[in-house]
């Protein structure tokens, strides 16, 4: 028989949700529906859930998969109102929904509500809450929950510690991560691969390459075989620590331990070699990727482009940049910055073309992008283009930096534009930029090329007042005796020397006043900075105190709920004991009463039998004075026996007419 779709009986809300068919209904409910809406949606299923609690667990699991923690929380309340027993599995799955939905506060709230629901949390409940805090970046709360588990008479397992270590890793707390890892053997727990990977990643984020390598070596001793994640974290730690040889060595160790390297492995190793300016090794590793059947991505190409930059291989850098487009991937800012920096050894239009390509791809060019392009214009003596790029930076919301001004001043110096170089140098303090050694040296060299010795001396004096130490070449540029040219200028007259001396004295006085004013301003700025720093520290301390108070309140709330649960359990046990005692006493009383009734009935029966027996023996009593029946001739006792006529039938006998009966 074929049943059409219209004749099929409709599924209930819980069955549809478990099968994934109530998605439209949940969408209509929204992410945070009211209590009445949830009760109306799931209420028809409560009768089934009372008989089969696992059906409610399946529905809550579906809510966790769909990342709907608010509905899961409201559903627990609706189950209580609908007289559906809420067990530890229901609460734990609801906390898991909070974890997947990145609602760590809601997870803690549900964990604290479990004693009020007469449900004691178990390891699964705490693990889900710790994982929620991990994903929320609340490493200190995760540690607090881990420490509260023994107080709640719940034994922490490896999963609990792994979640706490991962929380410390994401929070950059490598010390706490290693401390938790060392506690596992003390708790008679064996750390697994996840434990070590989280600890190595925590060390990697802080550049603790030596600790990362030690943990990697301990994995084999603890029978936890390192995997791709373990090696990748260790290689990244060596990259951040400047240990390119060890990074390359770990890459080769992966093949020996039957661990296949990935794109992340090669990218980290190539980046380590690039940062150490070992561009030959970096390019060699990049060329080995196809033999390992690993396709480079934009991250790997960016690291190789950086290596080409250090090696001056601007053509190969451009080729790699084009290769990213062939991989149907979009180059990022790092890739373009490395390519622009590498193109400084080539024609300057290439750098401008790359910068224009970034803007066409809607990539946000940063200070490095513009500074590298300005440096390329400097190499090509295109000072107008360099100044144009410098002026274009604020329009693209890129902040001006010292390196950008230094590159523009160097471009003006190579083009003998000393006036523009001095103008750029004088504009830097107005933009709250401190001229550096490169800025002063380029400006002095520009003045020297145009034989402006007085300006060179002024720049040298200004550099000294600003505590900038120019190099030897800057001193040479400021000294008239080191001028370049076929002939030296004639010696000045004594009057000219006297005037120059007086001018230098006035200049020194002015510079002294300016220096004093600068010191006062710096002192004021430093005082303001210290005050701001003190305020910041005060806020941090207040925040820490607030967090500690919240943790203590949470601990007290958990302790109170646990005590309340224990009191309720004790009262329930006493009530059951009293009910059993009362029932026993009632049964004893009923048994005794039944026994007494039976005894009275037996006594009554005995009396009746006795009466019947006596009545049977005596026969029917005659009238008073009448004689009884005669003696039986067959009676051997005769008439004078015990039942003879003189005794039985006579008037004076025991059963005679005048007798008792």
TrEMBL record:
Keyword Transferase: no
InterPro entries linked: PPR_rpt, TPR-like_helical_dom_sf
Keyword Oxidoreductase found: no
Bias type Gly residues, positions: 638-661
PPR repeat residue numbers: 122-156, 157-191, 192-226, 227-261, 262-296
Coiled-coil intervals, chain numbering: 505-588
UniProt keyword annotations, A-Z: Coiled coil, Repeat
Disordered: region residues: 614-661
Alphabetized NCBIfam families for the sequence: PPR (TIGR00756)
PANTHER family the record matches: OS03G0856100 PROTEIN, OS12G0638900 PROTEIN
Protein name, entry field: Pentatricopeptide repeat-containing protein, chloroplastic
């Amino acid at each position: 028989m074929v049943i059409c779709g219209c004749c099929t009986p409709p599924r209930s809300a819980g069955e549809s949700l478990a099968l994934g068919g109530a998605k439209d209904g949940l969408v209509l409910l929204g992410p945070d529906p009211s209590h009445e809406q949830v009760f109306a949606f799931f209420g028809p299923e409560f009768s089934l859930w009372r008989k089969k609690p696992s059906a409610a667990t399946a529905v809550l699991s579906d809510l966790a998969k769909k990342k709907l923690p608010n509905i899961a929380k409201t559903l627990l309340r609706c189950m209580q109102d609908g007289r559906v027993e809420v067990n530890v599995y229901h609460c734990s799955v609801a906390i898991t929904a909070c974890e997947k939905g990145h609602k760590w506060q809601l997870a803690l709230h549900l964990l604290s509500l479990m004693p009020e629901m007469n449900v004691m949390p178990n390891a699964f409940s705490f693990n889900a809450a710790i994982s929620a805090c991990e994903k929320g970046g609340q490493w200190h709360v995760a540690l607090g929950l881990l420490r509260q588990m023994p107080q709640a008479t719940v034994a922490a397992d490896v999963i609990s510690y792994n979640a706490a270590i991962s929380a410390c890793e994401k929070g950059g707390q490598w010390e706490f991560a290693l401390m938790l890892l060392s506690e596992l053997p003390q708790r008679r727990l064996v750390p697994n691969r996840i434990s070590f990977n989280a600890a190595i990643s925590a060390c990697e984020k802080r550049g603790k390459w030596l600790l990362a390598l030690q943990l990697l070596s301990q994995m084999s001793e603890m029978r936890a075989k390192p995997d791709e994640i373990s090696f990748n974290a260790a290689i990244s730690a060596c990259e951040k620590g400047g240990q390119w040889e060890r990074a390359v060595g770990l890459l080769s160790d992966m093949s020996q331990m039957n661990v296949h390297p990935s794109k992340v492995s090669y990218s980290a190793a190539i980046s380590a070699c690039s940062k150490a300016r070992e561009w030959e090794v970096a390019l060699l590793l990049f060329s080995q990727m196809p033999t390992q059947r690993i396709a480079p991505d934009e991250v790997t190409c960016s690291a190789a482009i950086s290596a080409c930059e250090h090696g001056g291989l601007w053509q190969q850098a451009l080729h790699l940049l084009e290769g990213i487009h062939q991989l149907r991937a979009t180059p990022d800012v790092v890739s373009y910055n490395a390519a622009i920096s590498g193109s400084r050894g080539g024609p300057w239009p290439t750098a401008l073309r790359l910068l224009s390509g970034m803007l066409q791809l809607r990539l946000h060019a940063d200070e490095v992008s513009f500074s590298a392009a300005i440096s390329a214009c400097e190499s090509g003596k295109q000072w107008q283009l360099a100044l144009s790029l410098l002026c274009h930076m604020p329009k693209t919301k890129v902040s001006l930096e010292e390196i950008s001004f230094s590159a523009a001043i160097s471009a003006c110096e190579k083009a003998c534009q000393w006036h523009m170089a001095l103008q750029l140098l004088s504009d830097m303090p107005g933009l709250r930029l401190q001229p550096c050694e490169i800025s002063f040296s380029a400006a002095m060299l520009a003045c020297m090329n145009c034989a402006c010795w007085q300006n060179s001396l002024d720049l040298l004096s200004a550099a000294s007042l600003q505590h900038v130490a120019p190099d030897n070449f800057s001193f040479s540029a400021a000294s008239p005796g080191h001028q370049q040219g076929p002939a030296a200028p004639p010696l000045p007259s004594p009057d000219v020397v006297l005037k120059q001396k007086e001018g230098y004295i006035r200049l020194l006085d002015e510079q002294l006043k300016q220096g004093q004013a600068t010191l006062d301003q710096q002192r004021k700025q430093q005082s303001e900075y210290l005050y701001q720093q003190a305020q910041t520290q005060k806020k941090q301390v207040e925040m820490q105190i607030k967090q500690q108070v919240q943790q203590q309140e949470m601990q007290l709330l958990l302790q109170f709920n646990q005590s309340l649960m224990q009191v309720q359990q004790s009262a329930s046990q006493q009530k059951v004991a009293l009910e059993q005692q009362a029932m026993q006493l009632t049964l004893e009383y009923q048994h005794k009463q039944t026994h007494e009734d039976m005894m009275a009935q037996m006594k009554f029966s005995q009396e009746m039998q006795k009466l019947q027996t006596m009545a049977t023996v005596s026969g029917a009593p005659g009238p008073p004075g009448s004689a009884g029946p005669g003696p039986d001739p067959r009676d051997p006792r005769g008439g004078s026996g015990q039942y003879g006529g003189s005794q039985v039938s006579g008037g004076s006998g025991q059963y005679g007419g005048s007798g008792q009966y």
